[in-house]
Amino acid sequence: MLHEGAGANVMAAFVEVVFDNADGRMAVDGDEVVLRRTIGLKKDEFFLNRKRVTKSEVVYGGGGGLGQGGSTRDNLVYGRAVMGL
């Protein structure tokens, strides 16, 4: 995410990606898997289905992370980014 604005400073932002998991190829409960990253001035957090997880869990798996669970653009439902929280 990049912000090149002339207005007020952005203090926080998030990006959220929703994956279709109807086929169960990701080791996460539910037909949809929501991955969210929130970035603030002094924090950078990851959430998987509203549960806080580490970046390592997202990238490499473990603890219900996506890891190598088959998350590809083929099962991407939608994504969104919001700045200025």
> Largest beta sheet, briefly?
5 strands, antiparallel
CATH architecture level-2 label: 3-Layer(aba) Sandwich
The fold-level CATH name is Rossmann fold
Strand content: 35-45%
Mean pLDDT: 74
Q: Distance N terminus to C terminus?
A: 14 Å
CATH superfamily membership? P-loop containing nucleotide triphosphate hydrolases
| Counted beta strands | 5
What does it look like?
- It is a single chain.
- With 85 residues, this protein is mainly beta.
- It is 7% helix and 40% strand.
- It has one helix and five strands; from the N terminus they run ββββαβ.
- It has a five-stranded antiparallel beta sheet with strand order 4-3-2-1-5.
- It is elongated.
- The two termini are 14 Å apart.
Strand and helix layout:
Elements: E1 12-20, E2 32-40, E3 44-48, E4 51-53, H1 55-60, E5 76-83
Antiparallel strand pairs: 1-2, 1-5, 2-3, 3-4
At a glance:
The chain has about 80 residues and is mainly β.
Key descriptive features of the protein:
5-stranded antiparallel sheet; single chain; 85 residues; Rossmann fold; mainly beta
